[in-house]
Amino acid sequence: MSTASGGGVQSLHRSLDLVAALEAAGAHGGHLPLAELAETAGIPAATAHRLLRTLVERGYVRQRPDRRYALGFRLVPLGTTATALLGEVAEGVLADLVDELGETANLAVLAGPRAEYVAQVPGRYAMRMFTQVGHRVALHCTGVGKALLAQLDDAAVAAVAAREGLPGHTAHTLTTLPALRDALALVRERGYAEDQEEQELGVRCVAVPVGGAGVGMAVSVSGPLTRVTDDVVERAVPALQAAAVRLVAGRDGA
């Protein structure tokens, strides 16, 4: 999981890798012993122990009575503030996408080994919602997920695949790492990702990454396959790319 080789301050990278490993463990109890946490983050145990002492002192990580580690409560107000700022920026951008394209517009972030929807504006048409805010989905079979994975390097993609697997949700799901890598190469080349019935039959989604590598956000529109035609996708891509630029500008100015 370690991203320290990408540049920047190594100790900060490693500290954030520890926090990310604990976040990813949320679906499995949310706490890990030192050895497993260090292995998951790809950090030597002695180094992890030193960094965790600081994170615990600052409240970003807490150590339970059984000596296992979990996310600290200091993160709660940070998350609340970030969500509020994001909502202010995203609502208008997503609403404009709905006005232009008619379909539901979504904003998702990389949350450990999954994508989490953090903002949404429903489409104009009466329809069942395919996603909702707070819902986490697999990365390999969703438009936002592939847009997020395309921001990572091959080693990080392989690590996600090894940890989560590549389960087949439909007959269209990519279930092998070579196939996923090929799809991500196409995403990087074209600048957008698609989910054509890969997570749910009858649903199509087109998504673009927000910002460059390391930002960990994607914006999308989704709807029934019968309405999200090739013509709609052709119109959606530039609209989504413009929305991504607005989201980055709004985030930086928030």
UniProtKB/TrEMBL annotation:
<dbReference type="InterPro" id="IPR014757">
    <property type="entry name" value="Tscrpt_reg_IclR_C"/>
</dbReference>
<dbReference type="InterPro" id="IPR050707">
    <property type="entry name" value="HTH_MetabolicPath_Reg"/>
</dbReference>
<keyword id="KW-0238">DNA-binding</keyword>
<feature type="domain" description="HTH iclR-type">
    <location>
        <begin position="9"/>
        <end position="99"/>
    </location>
</feature>
<dbReference type="Pfam" id="PF01614">
    <property type="entry name" value="IclR_C"/>
</dbReference>
<dbReference type="Pfam" id="PF09339">
    <property type="entry name" value="HTH_IclR"/>
</dbReference>
<dbReference type="InterPro" id="IPR005471">
    <property type="entry name" value="Tscrpt_reg_IclR_N"/>
</dbReference>
<protein>
    <submittedName>
        <fullName>Transcriptional repressor IclR</fullName>
    </submittedName>
</protein>
